[in-house]
Every structure is written in structure tokens, then in C-alpha cells.
Amino acid sequence: MKVKLNRTNSPPRAPRGPAGFTLVELLTIIIILSMLITLSTPSILIVRRNAKVKMSYAAYRVLEGGIEAYRSDDRFGRPPPSAPGDKSNYTDYEGRYAIVQFMIGYMNEAKDGAKGNGFRWREGDGSEFVKGGVIYGPYGGCENLKRAKGADHPVFVDSFGNEILYYRFSEEEGYVAGHNGSADPEGPTDLKQYTEDQVDPNHAPYRCDYILITGGPDKKFKDVTDGDTDVDDITNFRFRLREK
User: Fold this and answer.
1) Which residues pair with 170 in a beta bridge?
2) Who's near 181: CB < 8 A, 6+ residues apart?
3) Which of 81, 99, 125, 219 could form a disulfide with 89, with the two C-beta atoms 3.0–4.6 Å apart?
4) CA 76 to CA 89: how far, in whole Å?
5) What separation in angstroms does the CA of 204 have from each of 196, 231, 242?
6) Distance, CA of 79 to CA of 164 (rounded, Å)
7) Alpha-carbon distance 120 to 113, whole Å?
């Protein structure tokens, strides 16, 4: 005699969804992502830094073009002065402020009652800025360069926010640090030595009608003679590090 067993009717099982991550798996993923971010961050920062350096040099090229356009003007024949006391420096500003004014002119029409950038010269000897008259400048597209509000006047800045210091060469004095004496951070105190330190020692000391310099990414001016080979200063002249 066969015994027939009764089976209890149970509700059908719901289909199983996709398996989720376990806690261990999630922690492993987080650790891997953290490691990847840690490893890639320096590379990203280097790329960004190099891009800013290139942008700073591009701004220098625009500024140099403006200075050359200014120099080619029949009235001038030389780069703008950087000494406040220079008789040709009608702005009476030091280098970093003067270069903005000479390249762009008045940036506020309230200065002379006329619209637009550029200097308004007195007709005749051209010795003063007055309302009306002929407009000179802006030069070389310098009005499009990045500027910041300096301690006293507008100033050109590089991609790192450093104020671009400007020095015109003088046959009598050379480059004079005092032409940007109140710069923050201070520029090199011995510009002759500074320019000599950054060129090939087998060549003659650097000589140009003017120089443009900033402290670069670290915002500090360095000389090769300091023993620090990480010279990142941004200048308008090409420098070579001395080999150790």
C-alpha cells in the first residue's frame, strides 16, 4: 500500500534581482579610486602649471609687440621709460604702472573727457595730456591683456596673478631695481647680476632695451647663484641654467 504525501502549497518565489556589491567590494573600489586620484593629481597640477606658463609667455609677446609699436611711433623712438623721474615719463609712475599707461593710455574717460583708450596730446610740442587732441595708442592689442588693481594703479599680471615688472635699460645705470621699488614681492635687488646669472656663462651678459619679469608659479624671484636650480621665473628673455 502506497502512502500519498500531501505537499504544502507555497507561494512562488520572486525572481532574484541582480546581485549588489558587498561591503568589502565597495571598500576595495573606494581604495582603488583614491589611489588613482592621488597618483593623477600631481600630473594634472603640472599640466595646469605648464599651461599657465605658456599663457604668461603669450602675454609677454603681446606686450613686447605693443612696446615695439610704441617705439616705432615717430614721437618716441625708444621703449617707454620706467623711472618715475624720467623727463619723458609723463605719467610719473614707476615701471609696472607706467607700462600700462603707455601701452593703453587713459582707461577712464573721466581722466580727460574723451572716450576710448589712448593718450590725448596737446597739439604742438606734445608735452602734456589734455582734453581732446590726437589719440595715441593703445598699442599692439595690449588693452586686451589681463590686468589687476595694483597698490596704486592698474598693472599687467601674468597667469599666476603676479605683477609684471618692467625695466628700461639705461646706458648710464643699466637696469635699476628702484624703477619697481615698491613691487610686492620685491623684484631682484641686483638686476645686472640677475640677468647674468640666468644666461649661459659662456656668452656675454644679457643686454636688451627693456626686460619684463615675474616670479613665476611660486611667486618668488630666484637667482641661479642661490644654488636652487628650480628657477621658474618668467622673463621676456630666454635663460639657460648653469650646469652643475
Assistant:
1) 174
2) 94
3) 81
4) 11
5) 8, 20, 14
6) 16
7) 10
Mean pLDDT of 143-172: 91
Query: What is the pTM for the complete model shown?
Result: 0.72
DSSP string, 81-118: P--TT-TT-TT---HHHHHHHHHHB-SSGGGTS--SSB
C-alpha dihedral sign at 26, 30, 33, 39: negative
Other Cβ atoms closer than 10 A to 59:
22
Return the C-alpha cell found at 116.
576710448
User: Distance between CA atoms of 237 and 73, rounded to whole angstroms?
Assistant: 24
Mean local confidence (pLDDT), 163-175:
90
What the block records as the C-alpha cell of 99 is 607700462
Q: Residue 241's pLDDT band (boundaries 50, 70, 90)? A: very low
Tell me the pairing of strands 165-168 and 154-156. unpaired
Total residues belonging to the chain: 244
More confident residue, 122 or 153: 153
CA dist 95 → 28, 47, 137, 168 (Å): 58, 32, 18, 8
Q: How far is CA 47 from CA 43, 53, 176, 192, 193, in A?
A: 6, 10, 35, 33, 31
H/E stretch holding 194 reads helix 191-197
Does residue 122 surpass a pLDDT of 80?
A: no
Tell me if residue 210 falls in helix, strand or coil.
Answer: strand
Q: Give dist(CA 191, CA 205) in Å, integer.
A: 11
Point out which residues pair with 118 in neighbouring strands: 105
C-alpha grid cell for residue 221?
624671484
Tell me which residue has cell 628650480: 230
